[in-house]
Amino acid sequence: MHRDFIIAGPAAMFACLYFAPNSPPRRGLLKSLRSSDRNRALAGARNAAWDLTHLSDFVERVSKAKNGRTRYVFASLDESLRHIARLVFGTEQNTTEQNDLAGALARWWPEPNAVAIADALQSLFSRMNEPNRQIHRQQTLGFIDEMIVKGEAELLTWQPI
Predict the structure, then answer these.
(1) Rounded CA gap, 143 and 88, in Å?
(2) Cα separation, 132 vs 3, whole angstroms
(3) CA-CA distance, 91 to 122, in Å (whole number)?
């Protein structure tokens, strides 16, 4: 199943914070999600998507400049986004990635869950470049736009409890 999806570190770390059970800094991650005005909820989801796009672009720039002289500094007033950035860059180092991520997640997850999540993510990240993954296959024109339209339609019709 993992072969059918894009594996994105920022989105994975977003999910790790958003769904964490132990008081994570999720405030503002999905603004107005439970609003009765579904257009406000959609605007909040678009804002989250923009944040992840911005962070993904930043990660790509940092990765490309790794051996060069250019250095980047991530600055944001959004505390939750800064937490996500720390998680993403904590897993970018080629030291003890799984242990580092598990340790970072243990702030918001019980230790066995943090270790299991870190193991699962590390397994996915290690297979990112497999040639049989969807991302490496020919994409149908408009595939991403179609997925966005479907996701937005779901969000607009979802009724918060």
Answers:
(1) 27
(2) 7
(3) 9
Domain with 13, as residue range(s), is 2-157
pLDDT in tens, 99-120: 788 999 999 999 999 999 999 9
Buried b (16+ CB within 10 A) or exposed e, 90-119: bbeeeeebbebbbebbbebbeeebbbebbe
Domain count, the chain: 1
Q: Name the phi and psi angles at 103, rounded to 5.
A: -65, -40
Q: For residue 112, give Cα distances in angstroms to 27, 115, 121.
A: 25, 5, 14
Question: What is the DSSP-derived secondary structure letter of residue 95?
Answer: S
Q: Say how far apart CA 86 and CA 14 lie, in whole Å.
A: 11
Q: Global pTM? A: 0.80
